TrEMBL record:
One Pfam assignment: FAD_binding_3
Keywords: FAD, Flavoprotein, Membrane, Monooxygenase, Oxidoreductase, Transmembrane, Transmembrane helix
Segments crossing the lipid bilayer: 20-37
Organism: Hymenoscyphus fraxineus
GO terms assigned for molecular function: FAD binding; monooxygenase activity
Cofactor(s) required, per the database record: FAD
Occurrences of domain FAD-binding (ranges): 352-411
Protein name as it appears in the record: FAD-binding domain-containing protein
Family annotation (InterPro entries): FAD-bd (IPR002938), FAD/NAD-bd_sf (IPR036188)
Length: 449
């Protein structure tokens, strides 16, 4: 099976029947874009096709880990509209807590006092308005296409190959052979030429560096964070489930430390599995005087030091939250999460006559404190696909330049303020007194505020 259930081109076609799209980056948004293109081709078999290949710099799908969990909320309808039916029909397989979904319990959005356990702020999540999914399950679903039973790493490679993906393809530079073509040159000495190149290559995007080298660097925020995932016995998580079936967060009013707990994978009651996969994140303000220290506190290098630090930071918390931190296994994979963002600017890069653009984190890197990054990535794909769809049909005179101009106008208008809101949410999360009804940390989410 090819990338689009039709003929695949290795370069731009000279006829009007096809456009070849180069997707750089196999992250979540890149996979959604690839599946969306397949879906367009299936829905319009008589129209010109979009052939494509997906190029990824890593060695396999989960070289950076499987990721944690995420909430699809205001982008849920768009996600369902762009994906093929066989993917949508299995979307519920990716749910973090399938039994909560079946009993129609969406949970609450709440912010807790870590010292007392009291709920500082809470509002119910409307039924059907959001889905909490495990990132690794969603990525695996989006990569499906070949029914091959092999080891997990080989399976991911085979499934990813079905989307026309190329592994170990680190982008080195982009050139423009003609006014209507674009070439990607890779670190292994190969290159490919197409009609359109889309950068989906995460927050530190190589495509973005090529387009706007002087301003492509992300802005690191004055907050430091440690994150981890771990298996916990089901008997140990009942108190967490009593707070919320999906996630909760809170702050320490004395130290301004922020804490996040969520489930990544909860087994069903009838399953034989006896553990749940959980995610913890803790962050603190990067400033002098924090916790009595003369200098700003950086994330330690070793796992042992990281573990000792998060235990120190949680001293004095209410029993449940302290137990969650102190119950972290000695061999847990604690990682620093660099908090940085990049607000897009209109006119910041040359679109080269509509042959290149950015999608997802590559276009608008933002912190996770409003849970909107993936949602904006979905809307990016939805908007781009709609614009590309307008080029279909022999009577269409819409050019790729017009497609990219329209797409980027909408995308930047929508996401630039979203990046700043997520930045402020990050700052507020680590300043307990700033968390109020006006704070973007806990204000209700909408596609455009």
């Amino acid at each position: 099976m090819t990338s689009n259930d039709g003929p695949r081109s290795k370069g731009p076609l000279n006829n009007s029947r096809s456009k070849y799209i180069i997707i750089i980056g196999g992250c979540l948004t890149g996979l959604i874009l690839a599946q969306a293109l397949r879906n367009v081709n299936r829905k319009h078999p008589e129209a010109p096709h979009f052939t494509f290949d997906l190029y990824e710099r890593d060695s396999h799908a989960f070289a950076r880990g499987g990721g944690w969990s995420l909430t699809i909320h205001w982008a849920l309808t768009d996600l369902r509209n762009v994906l093929p039916m066989e993917i949508i029909e299995r979307f519920e397989d990716c749910l973090v807590n399938p039994e909560a979904a079946e009993r129609k319990d969406p949970g609450n959005f709440q912010f807790l006092n870590l010292k007392t356990g009291e709920k500082q702020h809470i509002w119910p999540i409307p039924l059907g308005a959001a889905s909490r999914v495990a990132r690794h399950k969603l990525m695996a679903l989006l990569m499906e296409g070949l029914n091959i039973q092999v080891s997990i790493q080989k399976l991911m490679r085979c499934l990813f190959a079905d989307l026309g993906s190329k592994w170990f393809k680190g982008l080195e530079r982009i050139t423009y052979p003609t006014d209507s073509t674009v070439s990607a040159h890779f670190s292994d000495g190969t290159n490919v030429t197409g009609d359109l190149l889309i950068g989906c290559d995460r927050a530190n995007s190589a495509v973005r560096r090529s387009l706007c080298p002087t301003i492509s660097q992300t802005n690191r925020l004055p907050v430091r964070m440690i994150g981890l995932s771990m298996e916990r016995p089901l008997s140990d998580i009942q108190k967490c489930l009593a707070i919320d079936p999906h996630f909760f967060q809170g702050g320490d009013p004395d130290s301004n430390v922020y804490f996040w707990h969520s489930f990544i994978d909860l087994p069903r009651s009838a399953d034989e599995r006896t553990t749940a996969t959980c995610q913890l994140m803790m962050s603190w303000p990067h400033c002098k005087g924090f916790m009595g220290r003369d200098e700003p506190l950086e994330v330690p290098e070793s796992v042992e030091e990281k573990l000792a630090l998060i235990r120190e930071l949680s001293t004095g918390w209410a029993a449940l939250f302290k137990e969650l931190v102190f119950g972290t296994p000695e061999d847990a994979d604690l990682r620093e999460i660099v908090l940085a963002d990049w607000p897009p600017q209109k006119g910041a890069w040359d679109k080269h006559n509509g042959t290149v653009s950015l999608v997802g984190d590559a276009a608008h890197a933002m912190t996770m404190f409003r849970g909107e990054a993936a949602n904006h990535g979905v809307i990016d794909v939805s908007t781009l696909i709609k614009r590309l769809g307008s080029t279909l049909g022999e009577s269409s005179r819409v050019t790729l330049k017009e497609v990219i101009d329209d797409y980027e106008e909408e995308m930047i208008t929508r996401t630039r303020p979203a990046v700043f809101k997520s930045r402020q949410a990050c700052i507020d999360a680590n300043n307990f007194s700033s968390v109020n009804s006006e704070s973007p940390l806990i204000s209700r989410r909408a596609v455009k505020d």
